[in-house]
Amino acid sequence: MTALGLINAGSRITASMLRAVAPLAAYKTADETVTSSTTLQADDQLFIALLANATYSWDLWLNYEGGTQGSSDLKTGWSLPASASLKGSAEYVNNAGSSIVEVYFTGASTLAPGTNGSGQVRGFTARGTITTSATAGNMQLEWCQNTVSATGTIVHAGSVLRAWQIA
Questions:
Q1: CB–CB of 56/85 below 8 Å?
Q2: CATH fold of 23-165, please?
Q3: Of 75, 102, 106, 113, which has the fewest CB atoms closer than 10 Å, so is most exposed?
């Protein structure tokens, strides 16, 4: 919330000041399913428009499910503006059933949270920073199955992506 200290009685409030006060947010209002595909695809709703030459703090929370552990799972990645630098960490259960704290990943990384069978909803959390260069654009979650399966992997409504401009 870098602009908060700049907002004073009688001052002119700009759009960039307001962007820095409240987070940008993308909320998933409908379930989305991927079946029999390990090709990352852009999520229909979890994306945020970022400004050029800006730095953001971001977080992601997904609730998802799929086939039995190791048979479909989830693979996540990112679509980012040109030359943007994303850094993050995450917590999830992997496709072997182990709790994982992903200490560090970049925008080029893919992560593979495990699923545990139909009706067994799991959570995935990630957070970090992203710095854009001269190109504005969307920060968009990409995901698919980690292993091809006829049992769909679902990212459920209620998942959310947020970002706060910090510089």
A1: no
A2: Jelly Rolls (2.60.120)
A3: 106
